[in-house]
Amino acid sequence: MLGKKVPFVTFRTRVRDGSIEGPNPFRWEDKTSDDYFKGKTVVLFSLPGAFTPTCSTFQLPDFEKLFEEFKAEGIDEIYCISVNDAFVMNAWAKAQDVRNVKVIPDGSGEFTRKMGMLVAKDNLGFGMRSWRYGAIVNDGVVEQWFEEEGFSDNCESDPYGISSPQNILEKLRAAKIEAA
Ligand code: BEZ
């Protein structure tokens, strides 16, 4: 994906709407790839599933904690995407008390498939999900790519390291020093 533009898709998000009464004051809001990526430099990280252990214990909370350090390196937003619907992604963000990282629901898997990152996880009863990867995306173009090794269907393990926030931050800092 290095040097390529991220696919243009429409994401079905759920947003809070104070004008809606009752216990579930949310409405649908379509957001496109342009809404998320146009005119910004962002970190995008993608993982196999909301609420899964590595994602909930390390990857999402560590990106959340390191947000200011990413900002200092010129990152405008950090996006967490997963092949999960908006209800699941919002519930996960709430459970994790996420305030800095923005979650993107790719419930249909269209974005992940067009990124070439869709894998079968039927061995876990998950169906089609995302291989774990991270990227620096500048104005919609992938500038740096952090894909875990062993891309495969029904992988027995869950490699995690290359797409960790610590590794991505280190590579961002190194690229800045090299460019200076
Ligand atoms: C994990 O994040 O630990 C995990 C992800 C996918 C499947 C199983 C576990």
Automatic annotation (TrEMBL):
The protein's enzyme class: oxidoreductase
UniProt KW keywords: Antioxidant, Oxidoreductase, Peroxidase, Redox-active center
Catalytic activity: a hydroperoxide + 2 glutathione = an alcohol + glutathione disulfide + H2O
Enzyme Commission number, as recorded: 1.11.1.27
Domain Thioredoxin: 1-151
Gene3D superfamilies, per database record: Glutaredoxin
Name of the protein: Glutathione-dependent peroxiredoxin
Organism from which the protein derives: Roseibium salinum
